[in-house]
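Ticket #4471: structure export looks truncated?
Reporter: QA, pipeline team
Priority: medium

Steps to reproduce: submit the single chain below to the structure queue and open the exported record.
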Amino acid sequence: MKVFHLERPADDPDPASEGGLAPDAFRSPTVTTGVFDGVHAGHRKVLAELTGWASQDPAGDAVVLTFDVHPRAVLRDEPPKLITSLDHRLRLFAQEGVDAAVVLHFTREASSIEPEAFVERILVGRIGARRVLLGEDHRFGRARRGDLELLKTLGRQHGFEARAVDLEVGPGVVISSTEIRAAIEEGRLDDASAMLGRPVSVIGDVVTGDGRGAQLGFATANLDLHHEARPPRGVYAATVTILPPLEELRAGAAWPEPSHLAVVNVGRRPTFHPEAQEDLVEPHLLGFEGDLVGRALEVTFIERLRAEKRFDGPDALVAQIERDRDAALAIAHERGLPHP
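Actual output as written to the record:
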């Protein structure tokens, strides 16, 4: 999947300064736009409509225009915990068959673009849209003034077709990213999974930690989640997938199968870091040996094993981790999941 980053849309810069983002980068593009946080069941309905519409043109590209940050982080100075980081969203777009993604750098200046200018400068001028699809409640441009009727009018002026798709995934059922985020953070993983249409997972890059787990005989991967929402503090059984680099993903490629069973600590590691203020997500991959620093991992949560707690010392902590490992192995065996 091709990914383009658009940094200065309000200035309407020369396409050559934006990594070659110009209409000739796409083939007869069908475009949709939105945050798509979570890429949940409702979003996937939009993406299915997008790829289906694009496929009616044998040479057509399905293109998603999304944002590098959630607009609330800019407009209200209230950055929400994202269900899916930008990297996670882009990977899910590729899985859904999207050919290209355009990532708009969202700023207050970008939010002030009138919908007419947004269509002329970006959808037409930078992408060359031939067809534009909106979720039925989607609004775009300054003060959310852009809607389907305006888009159809602009389409007649600029030579593209526009239509909307309803977001119901069942009779009267519309999925909310806000509800999913709350379910994850409250530990209602089954509820969140039902709304997502897939298990709850996080994707993060492995960064260098303090090495404490390796010293105890249970090496962990310290994940930078890029502000993704995660379940409440505690220890979880999970599966871990070592992901290929984003640039290697092809539109419609199958998602890699989970490759490792893991015990995951979500929290502040109170036994050794009672003063810590930041929650970490650290999976211990059972039976794995090797260096994961710099790799992207997907951690898919299976079941909460216990709450996080402070132990009297290393020996007590190690004994509990061994029990956690045995519990995770029993769950994996019962559910037919990969395990060492």
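Status: closed, not a bug. The export was complete when the record was re-opened. Leaving a note from the reviewer for reference: DSSP finds ten helices and 14 strands in the chain.
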